[in-house]
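User: Here's a chain of 136 residues. Predict its fold as tokens.
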Amino acid sequence: MKYDVIHNLNNNRFQLVALRDNDTHGVKTGDKGGYVDSIGVLSQDGDCWIAEDGYVGEKSRVTDNALVNGNAIVDSHSVISGNVVITDNAHITQSEISGNLTVSGNSFIDSSVMHSDEKIMLKNFTNISDLDHNDD
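Assistant: Prediction complete.
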């Protein structure tokens, strides 16, 4: 296992605790991670991580090498995978984001499917809704 959870009574959520180092995202054994609504939101496989200032809930999933940090929120059955980074107050809801995308800068993605093998950055208040994009 790469992480365990502790129950946070203040917000009735679980907080991640790293059980091993994760060099990809600079995580050390014992570091506290972000908050999740349920156990299993963060995959035990790969180097994916939710940093202490990230939140993933409402039956969403983070897998592979993805990272959620910087006060980002992922919720409502969203799936974040590949090398995706969700950061800087971004909010992902009801969406699947995969590949090499970075979503940041108060951006909001809703009800969309996005995949790109190319490095793409969505930032500075980008708002996307009902998009189905796959660059394969």
